[in-house]
Each structure stands twice: as C-alpha cells, then as structure tokens.
Amino acid sequence: MALVAIVGRPNVGKSTLFNRLTEERRAIVDDQPGVTRDRLFGTVEWTGREFDLVDTGGLVPRSAERFDAAIREQVMLTIEEADVILFVVDTLTGISDLDAEVAAQLRRAKQPVIVVANKADNTARKLEASEFWGLGFEQMFALSAINGTGTGDFLDAVVAALPDEPDSTLEDDAPRIAFLGRPNVGKSSLANKLLGRTRSIVTEVAGTTRDAVDARLDYKGRELVLVDTAGLRKKARIKENVEFYSTLRTERALQSCDVAVVLIDGERGLESQDARVLREAESLKKGMVIVINKWDLVEDKETNTARDLEASIKERLGLLDFVPVVFASALTGQRAEKVLDIALEVFAERQKRIPTAQLNDALEAATRRTPPPSHRGNYVKIKYASQVRAEPPVFAFFCNAPEGIKESYRRYLENRLRAAFGFVGVPLTLTFKRK
Ligand code: GDP
Ligand code: GDP
C-alpha cells in the first residue's frame, strides 16, 4: 500500500491532522481487533482508495536536544520512504526559519509534496494562508485539522497524487511472513539463508517504487512471501537514524503480514523494544513466532540454558505465552527452516474455524468447571458462543450481562479455548454480547 508521510516542525498540528484523517476509519473499525495502539501509523480510506499514513513527528524523540537536526533526518528518511509527502505549516505563525529549511530539503524530493496550511479555522486565516505558496510547491491546501474544514478537497488531491496500484494479480493467498526485530539481530541473515536454500523470486512491485520489495519463495512445494526484503537490505545506506528507519519499516511490514516472526538476540535476551514489537503484533492480531537467534553464540548449551532462557523470556512476556519459540542461528542455518515450518503452522492456525457445536461443548465444560463470578450480586450466565470470523479469529460470547465478565474470566476462557483448539501463536479476540 502507498505510504503518505506527514512532516513539519513541532506544534503545527501534525498529530491533530493525523487523527483527523484516520479518525473516520477508526470509528468504523474500532470494534474490530487491532486498532488500539500508538497513533503514529494508520490507514486512511478516501473515495475508495486506501493509503498508509505516518506521522513522522511522533518519531522524533521529544527530548531531542537539537530538534532541527532531528527534523532534518526525519525529512531525509521521509524522502527515502514515502510516496507522497504532506508538509504541514501553521497559518497562525506564518513561514518560520525552520519551515524554510524543511522546504529547501523537500524541494529535492522526487515524489509529490503537498503543503498543508493548517489552523485555517476561518475564512480570514484561509486567505492569509496564501503566503505559503511562497514555499515553492505546486500544491497547497488551507485547512483546519481541528474542525475539519477544507479536508475534503485536500484528500482528493492526496489520492490523486498516489502512485498507481500494483498489479492486482499479485494479490494472492500466499502466506505473508515478516521478519522483525532490532537492528543487527539477524533478520537479513535469516532471510538470505532461506532465500539461498529455496527457489525464490524477488519481485519488484510495479508502481509503488518506494514500497516494500517482497520475496516470493517456493518452500516445500508451497509458495510463500517474505515481506519487505528490501527493507532488510537497504538499511546499510541508512546510518544516521537507524531506529526511526527500523520503526517505520517494522510498522509497515507488520501491517501487511499474516505472521510476524520476531527475532530476539540470544546473547542479549528480551529487550524492551522487542516487547514493544510483540505487543504491537498482538494488538494487530497477527500470527506470532519468536526466534531466539544467534543461538550459536550462547555458551554452555549442554545444560539447561535454552530452557532457562525460554522460561525467563516467557515469564517476561507474561500473557504472550501462546507464542511458539524457536532457538536458531541465522549464521549457521541451524533451525532456519524450522522457523518457516512453525510460521506456516501458525498461519494455518490463524485461518482455523471451530464448528459452533464443538465450541459450545468447550464453553459448557469451561463454565461448568469455573462459572463466571456473579456481578453486583447478579448471576452471570454465558448462553452460547460462536466464532464470528477467522484470520484473525474472533469469538462472540452471548450472555445476560456482558459487563459482568471481568478480564480475569476472559483470560480463563481464552486459556480454555487454547487448551481445546490450539491456536498456537495466534492472538484471540473474545467479545461478550448481550442476549
Ligand atoms: P504537532 O506537534 O505538529 O503534532 O502538533 P499537534 O497536533 O500536537 O498540535 C499542536 C497544537 O496546535 C495543539 O494545541 C492543537 O490543538 C493545535 N492545533 C492543531 N490543529 C489545529 C487547527 O486546525 N486549528 C487550531 N486552531 N489549532 C490547531
Ligand atoms: P539485521 O539488521 O537484523 O538484518 O541483522 P543482520 O542479518 O545484518 O546481522 C547482523 C550481524 O549479526 C551480522 O554480522 C551477522 O553476520 C550476525 N548474525 C546474524 N545472525 C547470526 C547468528 O545466528 N549467529 C551469529 N553468531 N551471528 C549472527
């Protein structure tokens, strides 16, 4: 999907604009899994076209001492990655020095740049916005991110500026697997190892030049896609802001994959960033696999190191104990294929549909064993359940008092579902409805 990036100095209203543009869709999908998370990346739909939107301002550390330098990097990376750039400025302050600097940098961009003169809440300010033509770009829209005026025409222009959609014949059912993790954890080594061992075609997707380059491979007679191998390789060029780049790439790969394979450095153990990516994969309801990589470097494998490390990682993961863990070495190739085998297993689990009769047998057994605790003195009864969708799986439980179901009981039911039906590596959504 095309990527549209919002850039600009602090306080011009980037995040307000981001929220405005992603809001409508959020309202539609909030009911569905995977939308409650940090609002830096989102999907926007306008007149039938969809695009990814990133608020790059959120990726500049708030504590940055030299934020002008941070913004320069932000803009540089945006030029590398985005298909359309939204350059936000502030009609209340007019053109600032920093705006002029950003403009100079953006004029070198090959992709369309649209100036957004924000905070044009009324007609007077809208007129004042004409000074921003002076920044030297072909398109400028005066709008108000806060009250929404002017956003319709502006969105029409954004959609018109998007690159053509890639050939839709490439959209297929092949499992999409993404390798994620911190820089240097071994993602490209693992991808290359697997690509070297299998028949593979790296496809440049026409139209979306800056979009991900996916590798299609024939694995044990089955076609699958490794998401964004370009992102894995390209990073050598990016020296300055590796973190920003990897966050952006990770996010996009996550959005477009079916199964997220998160690599963790076996020598370093689980780090906070790893946990963040895992949480994000979970909130997007992607299939999940954890790879403890560089296992060749972990000493003393004869003893219980592996088990201890796995136990300590699982303990830190807490509720993510449904995620399978593979100990591997991208360098030696040890268990490299096992990673794909398990990813494919998770992919299949995520597609699974449980027949209603079986589901209700399991529900009955679970509620007989431990009935829902009463709520404000009232008896809570779950009458029946059904799997309302797959990929990702969502289960609806119909009860007399849905508000009486506590998180602990939800978790109990989830565990019972897993015990009965597996769903290894698959985040489950349980919803409770009144009936
Ligand atoms: P960012 O730092 O560029 O992401 O800016 P924010 O989105 O955090 O907005 C900075 C300030 O400008 C906040 O106080 C917003 O409420 C305000 N703001 C954003 N958009 C508008 C707008 O369209 N009109 C007005 N009047 N204020 C706005
Ligand atoms: P990426 O940034 O996650 O794509 O990481 P790379 O694949 O570029 O690997 C970073 C460095 O770690 C390289 O020097 C690799 O050779 C090394 N590396 C990757 N996987 C392993 C592994 O399993 N064992 C060892 N010893 N080194 C590895």
Q: How would you describe this structure to a colleague?
A:
This protein is an alpha/beta fold and 435 residues long. The protein is 37% helix and 21% strand. The chain is built from 13 helices and 16 strands. Strand 9 (214-219) and strand 10 form a beta hairpin. The longest helix has 16 residues, at 14-29. It is globular and about 70 Å long. The relative contact order is 0.09. Residues 25-38 and 204-211 have low confidence and may be disordered. It binds guanosine-5'-diphosphate (2 copies).
CATH architecture group name of the largest domain:
3-Layer(aba) Sandwich
- Count every helix, treating DSSP H or I runs of 4 or more residues as helices: 13
User: Could you give me the name of the CATH homologous superfamily of the largest domain?
Assistant: P-loop containing nucleotide triphosphate hydrolases
Query: What is the general shape?
Result: globular
- Cα(first) to Cα(last) distance is 39 Å
Query: Reading side by side through the largest sheet, how are the strands ordered?
Result: 8-9-10-7-11-12-13
Beta-strand content: 15-25%
Instruction: Kindly report the average pLDDT value.
Output: 85
**Could you name the CATH topology of the largest domain?**
Rossmann fold
- Share of residues in helices: 25-40%
Q: What class do helices, strands and sheet pairing give?
A: alpha/beta
The tally of structural domains comes to: 3
Number of strands: 16
Largest sheet: 7 strands, mixed
